[in-house]
Amino acid sequence: xxxxxxxxxxxxxxxxxxxxxxxxxxxxxxxxxxxxxxxxxxxxxxxxxxxxxxxxxxxxxxxxxxxx
Length: 68
Known about the structure:
Number of helices: 3
Largest sheet: none
Strand content: under 5%
Shape: elongated
Oligomer: single chain
Helix content: over 70%
């Protein structure tokens, strides 16, 4: 494997991790942007960080972050 392919491979993995982290942290960021109260922010973060790996927890966090 030459150096060009190795650099491209590393850049591809760095980009993939950046996208995954952005998706996981999106509900907490959206809750902050919509100026939710502190209690809602805590629940969004709990659902996103502790239950986000299930997908359902992430969707619940996303719902709590954007509901009015």
